[in-house]
Amino acid sequence: MGDSHLGHVKPAWDELADGYSHLYVDFKIDRTYGDKPLVIHDSSAGGDDAQVVFDDIRLTYGEDLDCNRYEVFVVFGMHYSVNTLARTYPRFRSDQQAAGGSYTLSRAAYQASANDLLMSHKAGRVITELRARTDKPIVYVQQPFPLEWIADRSDLDFGFYADIVANADDSSIRAAYEQSLEHLRSMDVHVRPQPARTLSGEMFTLGRYGLADSQDSSPDSLYSRGDYYHMNKEYGLLALDDLFHSEAGQLFRQ
Questions:
Q1: What are the sequence ranges of the domains in the chain?
Q2: What is the tens place of the pLDDT at every residue in 77-87?
Q3: N or C: which end of the chain has fewer CB within 10 A?
């Protein structure tokens, strides 16, 4: 289950699928142009099967997610991300960060707010509803960090990344995000972090793994339009390699 961030996963899986012929995989992809809301339920519950409908998660097909049908659930991206936290920087900061935000929160309040914010987004709500209906394994694959060149872009609405780096607050935002991943683990969710070789600094992704080419400044390029969050198939291959060869990988070999 995922959103546009499955754009780097689906082609990678298509390349690898023949090597995993024992797996049957369904992709459920949230699309801005989707016309069918996601429905999660568990047919094994019989008359107690209480379905939940996500009106803001829209699919073009495969909108029915029956927990009884699958053995493992993998959620990719869906805004449980460091980018979600970074966007709050102009308005909210912890007392461990540089002064200048509209509101200053204690470290504990900042972390609690970060957890609540991330859980309110699509990934958090999908995981919550899955866990309420099944004790089968759930895996969350981290949404990639922003591409490194965004810290040099003060145009559009991205100036806050330059401020975060200039104030050396990237490490504190990364730490808050890591704690929020621990919150998922407390729900018995297997969390797969971003592959280490793709990282640039505390909270960015090396430019080579992005769909956008920072050397292409033509008006309609992904770089000019500010696509700093979508990755390419090379990244997808690394993410799937990590998934299948980590401790979570045993879930796909049973």
A1: 5-252
A2: 999 999 999 99
A3: C
